């Protein structure tokens, strides 16, 4: 048997091993990983050319006061954290945040997107502290009404969250304010969170008073809710200045975690001249950490550019996009992304089709569609849910999920999975500690059944440990 054949995963047999039927497989997306220090995002093949300081691509819209916004926006959900001995986050590493923001501003980035929910509730303050030494008119702040908890969904709780954002960000106005995760749980919960409690009317008055410059929403939900939002905009009941959607070349034709594609949402917004902000252009790093044979495919087409640059060029090639957000934890991520947009080289139609074929090939890999947003965290029982899923997906993409002890690659794959698991996730935070309390799944924008996957992964680990595959 050829080496390539030995390392290949039998899709049907693998799905049987972890208990995923054909219907479940259809709902899964792809996630690649890298064994390097930054498992979330390793843009394969960094550039060695200087990082441009004066070539950032900007876009403006007349209906948004002609704000000149950098096409690369800084997503502040993944600031570097200070970790304890058990790899648990203890706080934001402010020194590194300052360094990253200083570098970003020096290289033309001027849009910073945060939320009260990010980084254990510390992102807004960390972002505000790093930005306050710069003239307020030199950058744009976006933050959100992240009223996920029931006690914060009342008018009083939501208003308190809104007002606290000004304090945390050290500002007296917010450029872009979003109703956060519109559509999660369906239309009725969204109405309760934002409309029926009076918050939307309050925020419109705040906009009229100048404390909010532009009002929009970020979306993770079904088509019914999205269409309702568009209908309300058309009727003038709830007009939106901008909308933030998950858009990338995998989601363009493949609906992941929702009932519609990114193409559908983008086109509906474009029809109404509603500018688009893109979140998850890399799907939480999955489009930068793709299987090796797909890396080779992209590198053959563009040897000098990173794998991640393809995803960013895709986003920037659509004219109704005014900003593509990236959660850049490491300096090399920031530098690589600045190169992608400084200046942007738009994709040709042929290159877009090339990426769509690549996306179709990715769909063959039965991985868990985790974007490492950390909305499922903290787990009340200490599990590192994103870490567990990241390691699992990494091994899928690298061929380290053996079929059986008869597999010629079994010993290597078994060792790689188990050793890597212990290194990536402390034992007390692994999947075997899941109690199926399901406090995590309702918060997942990708609609992953997290306890089910924890049980499947734990069962697979036990089989590997006992050599019973």
List keywords for this structure.
alpha/beta; 12% strand; globular
Q: Considering DSSP H and I runs of 4 or more, what fraction of the residues is helical? A: 25-40%
Anisotropy-based shape: globular
Q: Order the strands across the largest sheet as they lie in space.
A: 3-6-7-8-9-10-11-12
Helix/strand-derived category reads alpha/beta
Q: What is the ordering of alpha helices and beta strands?
A: HHHEEEEEHEHEHEHHEHEHEHHEHHHHH
Describe the structure.
- With 469 residues, the protein is of the alpha/beta class.
- Helix content is 40%, strand content 12%.
- Strands 3-6-7-8-9-10-11-12 form an eight-stranded parallel β-barrel, surrounded by six helices. It has a two-stranded antiparallel sheet with strand order 1-2.
- Strand 10 (242-246), helix 10 and strand 11 form a beta-alpha-beta unit.
- The longest helix is centred in the C-terminal third of the chain and has 17 residues, at 450-466.
- The protein starts with a helix and ends with a helix.
- Mean pLDDT is 86; it is low at 1-47.
